[in-house]
Here is the input.
Amino acid sequence: MIDFNHKNPTEAINAAIDRGIMFDRKIQPRRNYLGGSAIGEECERKIQFKYFNVPEDDGKEISGQSLRRFAVGHALEDLAVKWFRAGGFDLRVKKPNGDQFGFSTFKDRIRGHIDGVFVGGHELLKYPALWECKTMAEKYFKQCKKEGVRKSHPQYFDQVQIYMAYMQLTDNPTIFTAINKNDQMMLHQAIPFDADAAQKASDKAVRILQACDAGEILPRISNDPAFFKCRWCSWADHCHNLTI
Here is the structure.
């Protein structure tokens, strides 16, 4: 029971909220496929851990606060759809039956769901055009603005390329929208189709699934557990203590 007579109930209330949303996450059905958004991940072993639903290291499980942050990101993406439509763009995000647009390949083991498709509106764009939206902390938003998606967020670039290929939306550039979570500043970048990048991403996904089927553990991104990307990884302890 929450003590509402306590001078500062914030911690107790947040703990109750986080327990609830973390429980909801745990009872969600696990994916049995490789998502298009994961294919661009740099470390192929990390992709395997996600595919096999390997539990995160002790103490590195996703927090309730992180889940709330993700939810805010999704809410901003929903708002962005309304903003585009208010601006005169015909942006479609669901089929008439309410399902998301998406694709499935490799015996339904590689799937992806797109954020939307521009089908008409201003002459600013060429139609149809894939739409991909990401929300970012200010640091990463500025990096994306300065360097472009391909350099600053290669995982997102590969995601866009494989979506364009499988959704057959290759004629016109994808409109990649980044939203700064701090001030809701929006950045829009046009990403042309890169057939070579799309093929490499697709081949990578198939190779990872074949390795999973064969019981082969793919190389980690670094053999040094102190490497910064390994230190941030939720499976670092499991990965670097794994004997193969």
